[in-house]
Each structure stands twice: as structure tokens, then as C-alpha cells.
């Protein structure tokens, strides 16, 4: 389906493969985001209860419920409320939270900032380390180091985040007392204190993604290492290190960029568990709270941002792979 | 320095590890090679030619092990060197030219950088001198615009040019020993002719010794001073080229020679059977390319074989794709049994699809490696005939027997079969649909000569017993003469000559057909 959508654009901006890719992706993203917003809206509609019953709880009187519903237009049919919301979003307004009555754009930018800081800090450390471990284990293929790296990555993949998170808290916060167990950050916190608070959640997240990236880097490289041109390089007398660096790595960039992108997306949208373990005020927590309170506009806004994050990192990975592929950079 | 021969392989034995114990690939093979000499290694695939070629470079493919013997370069046993010393020796003094340059060049780097890489790594030349040498070699190998040729990426040049670029890569370090591993097998005849000339020139100019590996006796005969015939890892016969060709001692060598010599035309029964397939004014193009076929018209009578010959890039395979509906043409029609077929496959009826089947060049690529032979054959039976259970099983056995395979192979995976067996499975799959026309796209060019011969014989028997018609795409003139009734010669997307084999492939020729025929290596035009 997607390839068909690409064709007309290919022709118009054909000389610039990167521009045409970006244009095509943006063009596809709009209907995707539209469908995502409908799905999220429908899902919140299907859930039992609404914001009025969630806020007022057991003691709600029918008249109080009705008043609150009228305030949020919940007495209107669902499609009207969706259209209302959509016209707001198209005008750049994500709406107002049902529960806090605050402007969502404002709250969410704070939360998103926190999430991006944690994701970026983790990525800066983890991605190079994981790629390096993958290369190292190919360099020492089937040797002791390779086996050790494999054992480590298998262990980290098998370890659930809530377990490794609590384990780290137990060791570094409770037993040794070196680091804080909570990563709650506040507006007037010093940058140093913020950084210290981020160490444990960062390590926990790093453990969650490093195994995947390392394993896939190793697999992508080994796949390339079985190519005839690698044998040719060996017959030219080149050293194994030169062969990996110059002949294998450039041809494995595509798959490696893809797995890195997948994990970057995970760092943005999948950190709910780590955020709750460390009480970190990020997007994941925010969305879960909103779902519990049936705060539909907030859930919608979070969903849209998560979708955009996925689309952007995947596009970056594709651009990266495109740049690395001489067939696309230098057409016949 | 010393008077030891350049290469001296003594009683070499190599085994492969496998689940069912070690398999002996090379069994007690000895050979010597002097500087300036070319030794041809000949034999079918699996004979151990490439393994010996690699061993001469001190290299073993993963899983292989030397169990006896020595490989000496200038009297020094290179298998006894450390891995690092061996790499250095290889980079500085030995060189390898692979069968498929398309696969052997790294797609990520420019040709020039790859050509000079070893010369730079082993400190024999600085960058500007190395580049100069590469340009000289490109010029000597008659590559287009040699000064800028190195700027291109592998995908930007043709297969024949890439093969010559690989020879330049091998020559760039000025090696003393070069191993040519089937360097022309993947090329069509006219290109092969040019590359063979280039190889002879560089060997003569450099004074290096060369091992020339091929399964094609006629090709080896054109470059080698001596020939060593291998079979199942053993040396069968060894002698001067002329002597081996004129007075072979071993039955196996005689069989190889017979296949290489065969060229007798097929009886041209000029019967006027009705036309089964007729192609009218086909013009076709791929979406991103120029026009491939220009106004092509052909007709194929019932129970006959129409061969389509031409170099790579002449549009032969594209024509096959138009006929089987994979590539709807821009103009023209394909009629089958008097009816015009829908241009694209998805508009053709199931019955139309059933009656036209295809056999591809590479059975490896055409068979799903994760399906057993049985399940590969089951699909058309269920799809076209709705067969189930016992009937299906019986039919699979019948099909395998028809292609002369043991029905027990139904449980095997393609990887467990030989190249010839795999191609037979592809034929069985085509037969399963009970077609009237089979498009054969170079079905034998990836196979060894004796195996290819067997496949052609099978196709001919099937034609006689079931009245099949073949659209036979090939670049091999000898096959056309032996196998086809009619022939169409294609050049740059146009049919330049067509008719019965006897007429079309006899003089007077048009320019192109004349060149095509002159380029075919035969045992009789060995200089």
C-alpha cells in the first residue's frame, strides 16, 4: 500500500531521493495520524465510565454528573466531540485537560521535555556502546569475548525493566546509599541534582535496549561478513579489523540504523514502567493518569505525540540508510 | 633466488567438517606451476577446483581443514605460516579473480578505491602512483574512459566491465601468482571473448604464473598451457593442453570433450504445425529504464522450440516476462492458441496462467529454501487442479519420476540437492501445472556441462512425449543448435534475424549474428 502512495512523488522529486522520501513520508503520515486519533478516540469511548464518574467517584449525584458532562460537552454525540477536537488540533490547540482544567500544550511540553531528556541521555550512552559491542563480538566471532557479549546481551534482554530498576535501587540507593531512589524532578532543581537523579533510570533503560541493539548489530554485520566481497577482501590480504570497518560496516548501516530507530522510539514511548519505578514525571506516567481519569483530550494529545515520534525516528533511519547506500546516492 | 617452482602443491588433502563426519574434498592432489605459465584446472562443480585455487593462496573457506600435504610458494610452505604472515604474503604477491565480479566488489565503495586497496595496504605504492597504475590497467583492459572509470561505483558499470575491473584489481599489486576462478562463466559469449583476450594479455605482459579454473574445456583451452582434469577431488588427467584435447587418455576427459564438441544441428522437420504462441509488435519498458523491446514479433509453432539468443541486455529475458505476463507491454499483443492474452498476469484467467509456465536460470533463487521439494510441488497441484491427499502424493511421485528424480527426494529441502537436481525440481514444478508452453530462461547456464546436457535431454524427451513448446532463452549458440527448431537473434531489443536453426545460423550473416557466432569458443579454434 505504501509503495503505491510513493510512486507519484518519486516522479516529481526524483532527482533528490532524500527529499522525495521525506515528502512521501510526510504525505503518508497525515492520514496515519488521522487514523491513530480516531482509534484512540474510539478506544476511550469504549472504556466504561467517563471523566465525570472518574472525578466525582462513588458519591456523585446524578445532577452533579450531568453538570460536569455538560461542561465538557460529554452530552454531545461522540462524532461531534471528535470533530470539535479535530478542528482545535488543526488550529494548533490541543485543548484543555478535563481534570486539571489546564492548557494541555503547556503541561505536555514540560512532560515531553522530561521524557526527551531521559531518552537522549540514555541514547547518547547506549547507542555507541551497543554498536561497539556488536562490532567487537564480530571481530572476535566465536571467541571468548563474543560469547561473553552474547551472554550479557541475552541476560539484559531477559531481564524485565521493573526488576532491573528495583534491583538497581536496592543496590545503589538502599544498600550503598550512593544515589537517590526517586527520579522526581522539579522546576527549581539544580542541573547537577537533576543529572544525579537521572543516573539510575538511565541505566535501567540502557539495560533494556542495549541487548537488542548489540544483537542486531552483530547479526547485521555477520550477515554482511558472509558476502563474497568480504571473502575477496580476505584474499586481498586485508586485516580482519580493516575488513569489518571498511568493507562490512558501510553495508550494514541500513539494518543497524533501523534497530537503533526502533529503540529510540521505544525510549520515547515505552518508558512507562521505568517512569513509575522511579516516579519520573514523563509522558508515559502522564498518559496513564489521563487514561485512568478518562481525560480524553490529554490521551489524544499523548497518542499523537507518540505517533509523531515513531514516524520521525523511522524516517531518520530511512534517510540514514539512504545516505549509506551508494545505489541510491549515485544512480546509474 | 632459488630454483623452486613458483607454486608447488604436494599431495594436498582437504576435508570439510559436516554433521555426518568429515568429507574429503581434495584427495592427494599435486601440481606445479612456473612463472609465466598458465595451468587450467577443469572439472564439474564439486570437483574441488576452487578449493585448490584458494589453497594456492593459503586460504581455506570456513569449515575446511588441510589433512595432509603442502602448498609451497617459492619453496616455502605457506600453510605453516602464521595467519598474519599469510595475509601479508597474499596481499603482496598473490591475487584472486572471482567468478562473479558483481558479488566480489563491495557495493559501498568506488571501483578505483577497491582496485588500489591492496597495493596501498602493503606499502608497495603511494596513493597517486597506485591510482596511476590503476588508470594504466583500466586502459590496458580497454575499459571506457580509463581516467575516470575508478570514480564509478560497481552498480554503475556493466558485468563485463566489472569483470575486467576485477582483473585490474588483481593486477594492481603486480602479483606473482594469480588464481582465475571461472572469470568468464557469468558472461555472455561476446563479452567472454573480450575478457579472455584481456586475461591472456595481462598474463603475457606481467610474467606471472596463473591457475585458470573453469568447467568449460573450450575456454580453458584458449588460455592454458597445461590442463589438469579434476573429478571428485582427485586429479584424473594432466598434460599439455593440445595433448589433452587431441589424445585424451581417461574416459571422463573424453566425456567432457564430447559435450564441448557437440554442435550438430537438430533435424529441421519443417512441419507447418499451427502456431501456438504469436507475439505481435511488442514494445516494452521498465518503469525507470528506457525502452527494452522495440516492435518485436515472433511466432512459435506447437510442439516446437523457439530459441531466443543474444547478449545480456538484448532484451531476451524481458521478452519472456512479457509472454508470461509479468511485464505488461506498452504496445503489441501476445496471442496464445489463437486468442489474445490479457497483457498483465492478474487479468489472465487461471487456465491461461496454467498453460504458460516458466523455468528460471538459477534454481537456487527460484526454489523456496524453507519448503521441501514435496511442498514446492504441491502448490500448483492444489492451485490449478484442487487435488488433495493421496492423489496429490501420487502425482508428486509421478512428477519426480518424470524428471528422473527419486520420489524419496520429496522430503528433502532444496539445499540438500545438487544444482542439476534443483533444476529438475523446477521442471517438475512447471510440469505440475500441465502447461502447453514453458518459457525456459537460461535453464542450463548455471550448470556444469554434463548436468546441463542431461537437463536438455530431459526437456527434449518431455517435448516429444507431451507435445510441449518451449520459448528457450539462452546466450549459448551450441545449445541452440543442439536443441532448438527455430531461432530468433536479438540485439538491443530488436529481432535482427529469425528462422529455422539450419537457415538462420548459416551464412550469409548480418553483422551482429556473424560476430555472435565468431565469438563462441570451440575446441577447433584454439590458437
Describe what you observe in this structure.
The complex is a heterodimer of chains A (332) and B (527). With 332 residues, chain A is an all-alpha fold. Chain A is built from 15 helices and no strands. Chain A has a domain at 114-296: MetI-like (MetI-like fold), CATH 1.10.3720. Chain A is 78% helix and 0% strand. The two termini of chain A are 27 Å apart. The model of chain A is unreliable at 1-13 (pLDDT under 50). Chain B has 2 domains: 7-261, 3-Layer(aba) Sandwich (Rossmann fold), CATH 3.40.50.300; 275-368 and 435-525, 3-Layer(aba) Sandwich (Rossmann fold). In chain B, strands 6-7-8-3-9-10 form a 6-stranded mixed beta sheet, with helices on both faces. Chain B has a 6-stranded mixed beta sheet with strand order 16-17-18-13-19-20, sandwiched between helices. A 4-stranded antiparallel beta sheet of chain B has the order 2-1-4-5, with helices on one face. The longest helix of chain B has 18 residues, at 189-206. Chain B starts with 6 loop residues before the first strand and ends in an 8-residue tail after the last helix. Chain A binds chain B through residues 227-229, 231-239, 242, 246-247, 250-251, 324, 326-327, 330, 332, and chain B through 54, 57, 59, 61, 84, 87-92, 94-96, 98, 100, 103-109, 117-118, 121-122, 153, 155-156, 169. Chain A: It is a multi-pass membrane protein. Chain A: Keywords: Cell membrane, Membrane, Transmembrane, Transmembrane helix, Transport. Chain A: Residues 112-317 form the ABC transmembrane type-1 domain.
Amino acid at each position: 500500500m505504501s509503495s503505491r502512495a510513493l510512486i507519484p512523488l518519486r516522479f516529481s522529486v526524483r532527482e533528490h531521493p532524500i527529499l522525495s522520501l521525506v515528502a512521501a513520508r510526510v504525505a503518508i503520515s497525515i492520514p496515519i495520524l488521522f487514523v491513530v486519533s480516531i482509534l484512540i478516540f474510539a478506544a476511550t469511548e469504549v472504556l466504561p465510565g467517563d471523566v465525570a464518574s472518574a472525578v466525582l467517584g462513588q458519591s456523585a449525584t446524578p445532577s452533579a454528573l450531568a453538570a460536569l458532562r455538560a461542561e465538557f460537552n460529554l452530552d454531545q454525540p461522540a462524532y461531534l466531540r471528535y470533530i470539535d477536537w479535530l478542528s482545535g488540533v488543526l488550529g494548533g490547540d490541543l485543548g484543555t485537560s478535563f481534570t486539571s482544567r489546564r492548557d494541555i500544550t503547556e503541561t505536555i511540553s514540560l512532560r515531553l521535555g522530561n521524557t526527551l531528556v531521559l531518552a537522549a541521555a540514555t541514547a547518547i550512552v547506549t547507542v555507541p556502546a551497543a554498536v561497539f559491542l556488536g562490532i567487537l563480538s564480530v571481530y572476535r566471532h566465536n571467541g571468548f569475548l563474543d560469547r561473553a557479549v552474547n551472554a550479557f546481551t541475552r541476560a539484559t534482554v531477559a531481564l524485565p525493566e521493573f526488576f532491573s530498576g528495583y534491583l538497581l535501587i536496592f543496590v545503589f540507593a538502599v544498600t550503598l546509599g550512593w544515589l537517590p531512589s526517586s527520579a522526581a524532578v522539579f522546576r527549581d532543581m539544580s542541573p547537577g541534582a537533576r543529572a544525579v537523579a537521572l543516573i539510575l533510570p538511565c541505566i535501567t533503560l540502557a539495560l533494556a535496549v542495549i541487548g537488542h541493539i548489540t544483537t542486531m548489530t552483530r547479526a547485521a554485520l555477520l550477515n554482511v561478513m558472509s558476502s563474497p566481497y568480504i571473502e575477496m577482501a580476505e584474499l586481498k590480504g586485508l586485516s580482519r579489523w580493516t575488513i569489518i570497518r571498511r568493507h562490512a560496516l558501510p553495508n550494514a548501516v541500513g539494518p543497524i540504523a533501523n534497530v537503533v530507530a526502533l529503540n529510540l522510539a521505544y525510549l520515547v514511548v515505552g518508558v512507562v514502567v521505568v517512569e513509575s519505578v522511579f516516579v519520573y514525571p514523563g509522558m508515559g506516567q502522564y498518559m496513564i493518569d489521563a487514561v485512568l481519569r478518562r481525560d480524553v483530550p490529554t490521551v489524544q494529545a499523548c497518542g499523537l505525540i507518540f505517533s509523531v515520534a515513531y514516524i520521525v525516528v523511522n524516517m531518520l533511519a530511512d534517510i540514514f540508510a539512504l545516505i549509506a547506500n551508494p545505489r541510491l546516492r549515485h544512480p546509474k | 633466488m632459488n630454483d623452486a617452482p613458483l607454486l608447488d602443491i604436494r599431495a594436498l588433502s582437504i576435508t570439510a567438517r559436516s554433521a555426518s563426519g568429515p568429507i574429503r574434498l581434495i584427495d592427494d592432489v599435486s601440481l606445479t606451476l612456473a612463472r609465466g605459465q598458465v595451468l587450467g584446472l577443469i572439472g564439474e562443480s564439486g570437483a574441488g577446483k576452487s578449493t585448490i585455487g584458494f589453497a594456492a593462496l593459503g586460504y581455506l573457506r570456513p569449515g575446511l581443514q588441510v589433512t595432509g600435504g603442502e602448498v609451497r610458494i617459492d619453496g616455502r610452505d605457506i600453510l605453516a605460516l602464521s595467519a598474519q604472515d599469510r595475509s601479508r604474503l597474499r596481499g603482496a604477491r598473490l591475487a584472486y579473480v572471482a567468478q562473479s565480479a558483481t558479488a566480489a566488489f563491495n557495493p559501498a565503495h568506488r571501483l578505483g578505491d577497491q582496485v588500489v586497496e591492496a597495493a596501498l595496504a602493503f606499502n608497495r605504492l603511494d596513493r597517486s602512483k597506485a591510482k596511476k597504475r590503476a588508470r594504466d590497467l583500466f586502459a590496458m583492459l580497454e575499459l571506457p574512459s580509463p581516467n575516470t572509470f575508478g570514480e564509478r561505483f560497481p552498480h554503475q558499470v556493466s558485468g563485463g566491465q566489472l569483470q575486467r575491473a576485477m582483473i585490474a584489481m588483481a593486477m594492481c599489486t603486480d602479483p606473482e601468482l594469480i588464481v582465475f576462478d571461472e572469470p568468464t562463466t557469468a558472461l555472455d559469449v561476446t563479452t567472454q571473448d573480450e575478457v579472455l583476450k584481456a586475461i591472456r594479455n595481462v598474463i603475457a605482459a606481467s610474467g606471472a604464473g596463473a591457475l585458470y579454473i573453469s568447467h568449460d574445456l573450450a575456454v580453458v583451452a584458449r588460455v592454458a598451457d597445461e590442463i589438469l582434469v579434476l573429478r571428485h577431488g582427485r586429479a584424473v588427467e594432466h598434460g599439455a593442453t593440445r595433448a589433452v584435447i587431441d589424445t585424451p587418455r581417461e574416459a571422463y576427459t573424453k566425456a567432457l570433450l564430447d559435450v564441448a564438441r557437440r554442435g550438430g544441428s537438430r533435424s529441421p522437420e519443417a512441419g507447418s504445425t499451427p502456431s501456438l504462441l504469436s507475439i505481435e509488435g511488442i514494445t516494452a519498458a521498465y518503469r525507470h529504464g528506457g525502452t527494452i523491446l522495440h516492435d518485436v514479433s515472433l511466432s512459435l509453432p506447437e510442439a516446437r522450440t523457439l530459441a531466443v539468443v543474444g547478449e545480456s541486455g538484448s532484451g531476451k529475458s524481458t521478452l519472456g516476462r512479457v509472454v508470461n505476463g509479468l511485464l505488461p507491454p506498452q504496445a503489441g499483443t501476445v496471442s496464445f492458441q489463437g486468442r489474445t492474452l490479457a497483457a498483465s498476469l492478474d487479468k489472465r484467467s487461471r487456465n491461461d496462467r496454467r498453460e504458460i509456465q516458466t523455468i528460471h536460470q538459477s534454481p537456487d533463487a527460484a526454489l523456496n529454501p524453507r519448503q521441501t521439494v514435496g511442498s514446492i510441488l504441491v502448490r500448483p497441484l492444489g492451485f490449478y487442479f484442487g487435488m488433495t491427499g493421496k492423489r496429490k502424493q501420487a502425482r508428486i511421485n509421478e512428477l519426480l519420476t518424470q524428471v528422473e528424480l527419486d520420489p524419496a527426494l520429496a522430503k528433502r529441502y532444496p539445499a540438500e540437492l545438487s544444482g542439476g537436481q534443483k533444476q529438475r525440481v523446477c521442471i517438475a514444478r512447471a510440469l505440475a501445472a500441465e502447461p502447453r508452453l514453458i518459457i525456459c530462461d537460461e535453464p542450463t547456464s548455471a550448470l556444469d556441462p554434463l548436468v546441463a546436457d542431461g537437463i536438455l535431454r530431459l526437456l527434449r524427451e518431455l517435448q516429444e512425449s507431451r507435445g510441449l513448446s518451449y520459448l528457450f532463452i539462452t546466450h549459448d549458440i551450441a545449445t541452440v543448435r543442439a536443441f532448438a527448431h527455430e531461432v530468433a537473434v536479438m540485439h538491443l531489443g530488436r529481432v535482427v534475424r529469425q528462422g529455422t536453426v539450419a537457415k538462420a545460423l548459416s551464412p550469409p550473416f548480418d553483422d551482429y549474428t556473424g560476430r555472435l557466432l565468431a565469438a563462441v569458443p570451440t575446441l577447433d579454434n584454439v590458437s
